[in-house]
Amino acid sequence: MSTPATKARPLPPVREEYERPLAPLGELALEVPLPLAKRIAGQSWLRKTLIALVLIAGWEIAARLVDNDLLLPTFGATLSAFVQGIWSGELLQKTAVSMSVLLRGYMLGAALAFVLTSLAVSTRIGRDLLSMLTAMFNPLPSIALLPLALLWFGLGTGSLLFVLVHSVLWPLALNTYSGFQSVPATLRMTGRNYGLTGLRHVLLILVPAALPSILAGLRVGWAFAWRTLIAAELVFGASSGSGGLGWYIFQNRNELYTDRVFAGLAAVIVIGLLVEHLVFDTLERVTVRRWGVQQ
Quick one: which of 231, 271, 217, 237 has its CA closest to 141? Predict the structure, then answer.
């Protein structure tokens, strides 16, 4: 039943409805294009190319100021030695020897790192073992173990593999374990609710969630292994009558072919760039970036 006060209350005014048409986003984008400078600056490959050209120009200017090919050859002389080394096949053969040893040591170190981190996230003893070993051996330079490796494995590939495993194992294990520790507890509980334990829990739950940290560890391990291999080849030279890029650099340094020394260093840099962009960047793009785990 209504009261007099209710009847006396005025009704709110009725506002007239209207629609405002919006221009399509595509037409707006076409009408206001980005400036040319911003479009050029947005290309990552172009920025990196400009940086490389600036570095090459600085190298060429410094070489011409020094004016001594024995101390610092020009970029043109180095490029000529690099092309000649590839054309003769010598540089390619040395690269193949180094890459063969590197891949074996890298894969072995990565496998051992996975075993250690799997034990660390599964048992307390494994966690204590990983913590103790990384604290002991991670600060130890890999090249410092080369004399000991020569005593144990002799002058051969075994010594190189020993120092390579040491250079890859500890940084990769630390990054992988850090990634495993950062996995949310809810995701861990979800895996356990599905009955996943042990190795299956690590492979199906922890590894996909910790993949950004694992990829970072793989990058660091690759860089450590690559420079450790070159340094080890510089120290004890050829293995079984054939040496790698480090031996190529060392031998040409003794013969005072400085342009070939720089060509060998350029080969080390080029291989590092190719692996970084063609392997790790591609792997990151098709996994963590595609899944939205990392921007």
Answer: 231
Q: Give the count of beta carbons closer than 10 Å to the beta carbon of residue 153.
A: 15
Q: What is the CATH number of domain 97-235+266-289?
A: 1.10.3720.10
Amino acid type, 235: V
DSSP secondary structure letters along 241-279: TB--HHHHHHHHHHTT-HHHHHHHHHHHHHHHHHIIIII
Higher model confidence: residue 204 or residue 23?
204
Classify residue 227 as left (phi > 0), alpha (psi -120 to 50) or beta: alpha
d(CA 119, CA 137): 18
Q: What is the DSSP string of 163-188?
A: HHHHHHHHHHHHHHHHHHHTS-HHHH
Each domain of the chain, given as residue ranges in start order, spans: 97-235+266-289
74-124 pLDDT, tens digit per residue, is 888 888 888 988 898 888 888 888 888 899 999 999 999 988 988 888 888
Residue 142 · residue 85 · CB < 8 Å: no
- Segment 47-61 shows an average pLDDT of 86
Q: Does the structure show a pLDDT above 80 at 248? A: yes
**Exposed e or buried b for every residue in 156-173, given b needs 16+ CB within 10 A?**
ebebbbbbbbbbbbbbbb
**Among the listed residues 281, 174, 137, 165, the one whose alpha carbon sits nearest the alpha carbon of residue 229:** 165
Specify the amino acid at residue 74: T
Cα–Cα distances (Å) from 274 to 18, 133, 223, 236, in that order, read 59, 32, 12, 27
**Residue 275 burial (10 A CB sphere; 0-12, 13-18, 19+):** middle
- Which pair of tokens denotes residue 185? 């507890």
What does the DSSP 8-state code read for residue 287? Answer: I
Tokens of 18: 């209207």
